[in-house]
Task: inverse folding
């Protein structure tokens, strides 16, 4: 009886181990494996370097019409800002997306630029650690003006985000907020403190910032949602795009 009982106990442990391994595999699934509407695999991953995590065309497998892209990006940004606020995850807009602040000053309407096909945001390294630890591969259903019945969005964190070296040039995007239906996404990049230079900060994409240019973050409005922007936003835009970026009213002629 003792031997038979021991055998059943061992069998139960084997079954439990297999179940846990399956759960880990499911929990570690990437966006491509859970995409709800994918007409073809055009990721090009067969030709990508093996260390590259993101395969951009995995997300969008067809060209979106202008109005369709605009409404999807608007809902995408609104859902991201609302969800990060609910999670208590501090984030701010950056790069070309930040140009909307200048538009706000001129037109009282801050929105995604007509030529943008994605959105760029920053989070601190601490916030990225928080998101990676508790919210990686989580799906969030959000209702917006353009999606009153709700749409599903996924937060996916690049496991290589922990390597903050700019030498890892294949993985400069640390996470993405992804529309699971259309595939449009927000690029999320972590900002790290520069070793031995506590007043300086950097991202893996080799952008460098003075802490005083980023913080304290300012409050603004973007796509009808509260948003954070860098403290010295005008100087950052001028450094990245030139002085003309603050005054030019036409794009591409």
Result:
């Amino acid at each position: 009886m003792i031997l038979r009982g021991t055998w059943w106990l061992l069998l139960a442990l084997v079954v439990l181990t297999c179940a846990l391994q399956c759960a880990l595999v499911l929990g570690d699934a990437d966006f491509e494996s859970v995409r709800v509407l994918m007409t073809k695999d055009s990721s090009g991953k067969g030709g990508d370097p093996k260390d590259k995590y993101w395969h951009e065309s995995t997300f969008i497998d067809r060209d979106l019409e202008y109005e369709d892209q605009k409404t999807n990006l608007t809902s995408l940004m609104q859902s991201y800002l609302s969800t990060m606020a609910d999670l208590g995850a501090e984030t701010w807009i950056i790069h070309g997306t930040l140009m909307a602040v200048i538009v706000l000053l001129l037109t009282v309407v801050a929105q995604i630029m007509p030529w943008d096909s994605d959105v760029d945001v920053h989070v601190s390294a601490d916030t990225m650690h928080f998101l990676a630890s508790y919210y990686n591969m989580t799906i969030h259903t959000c209702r917006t003006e353009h999606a009153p019945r709700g749409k599903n969005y996924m937060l996916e964190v690049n496991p290589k985000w922990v390597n903050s070296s700019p030498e890892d040039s294949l993985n400069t995007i640390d996470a993405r907020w992804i529309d699971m239906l259309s595939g449009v996404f927000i690029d999320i990049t972590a900002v790290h403190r520069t070793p031995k230079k506590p007043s300086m900060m950097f991202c893996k994409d080799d952008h460098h910032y003075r802490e005083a240019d980023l913080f304290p973050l300012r409050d603004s409005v973007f796509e009808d949602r509260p948003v954070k922007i860098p403290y010295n936003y005008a100087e950052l835009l001028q450094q990245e795009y030139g002085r003309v970026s603050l005054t030019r009213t036409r794009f591409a002629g």
Observations:
- The longest strand covers residues 185-194.
- Residues 2-27 form the longest helix (26 residues).
- Residues 19-27, 37-45 have pLDDT under 50 and may be disordered.
